[in-house]
Write a structure and sequence with these properties.
Nucleotidyltransferase, domain 5, five-stranded mixed β-sheet, alpha/beta, 5 helices, ATPase_NBD, cytoplasm, single chain, Type III pantothenate kinase, 2 domains, potassium
């Protein structure tokens, strides 16, 4: 039996870790940015993991890697980390490691088939792995919160509307109109992107993941 493995995913939306045992997810933990090191130290003491993998797209404390290297067999995910996917992106070193992780997971789960992985977080990313196991790239568009903030920041009178899972499809006031426009617009974008990939590649898997879920489900 392989000991627990900690899989850290430090993104712009959430800081989290999956505790894995023999390929199964035992538990998921979320961290606060202010107490990240202390919370990770507590997690290490609790599970005594054999190994740890770090996928980070933020400026995390350097001491985090030192801690993980001291307590575990540590791997920091990079574009040149050996993975079950071949990266054919023009400049692999510019790829976000979050996108690399998504592509690697899809290639491992669905070998020999096309897969489109949609990551809904601070940005919405579209990541395509072909049936040859090549991560070709995809697309990046503004995330939900970014869209709300942009409407407020780039206009004089539109308010900053907080995200809500329930809203009126036909907005009956400014707040509801912004909710409908942003959330329905994001849904239409995702649906349209899936349709565009379907027109080119026909049979393929669609995987949805990320820190922001509710917009994917109409009220």
């Amino acid at each position: 039996m392989i000991g627990p493995i900690l899989c850290f995913d430090l993104g712009n939306t959430r800081l989290k870790c999956g505790i894995m045992q023999d390929g199964a997810l035992l538990e998921e933990r979320f961290f606060s940015e202010a107490a990240l090191l202390a919370e990770v130290d507590t997690l290490l003491a609790e599970y005594r993991p054999q190994a740890a993998v770090l996928s980070s797209v933020i400026e995390h404390p350097p001491a985090l890697e030192a801690l993980l290297s001291r307590e575990t067999e540590f791997i920091r995910l990079r574009y040149d980390t050996p993975l079950p996917v071949k990266i054919v992106y023009e400049k692999p070193e510019t790829l976000g490691v979050d996108r690399i992780a998504l592509a690697a997971g899809a290639a491992d789960m669905f070998p020999g088939s096309h897969s489109l992985i949609i990551g809904a977080g601070s940005a919405i990313t579209y990541n395509f792995v072909n049936k040859k196991g090549e991560f070709m790239g995809g697309g990046i568009s503004p995330g939900i919160e970014m869209r709300f903030r942009a409407l407020h920041a780039f206009t004089d009178k539109l308010p900053l509307v907080p995200q809500e899972a329930h809203y009126s499809f036909v907005g009956y006031n400014t707040r509801q109109s912004i909710l409908s426009g942003v959330l329905e617009g994001a849904l239409a974008e995702v649906d349209g992107m899936i349709g565009s990939y379907a027109a080119r590649y026909r049979n393929f898997n669609v995987l949805l993941t990320g820190g922001i879920w509710f917009f994917c489900f109409p009220p």
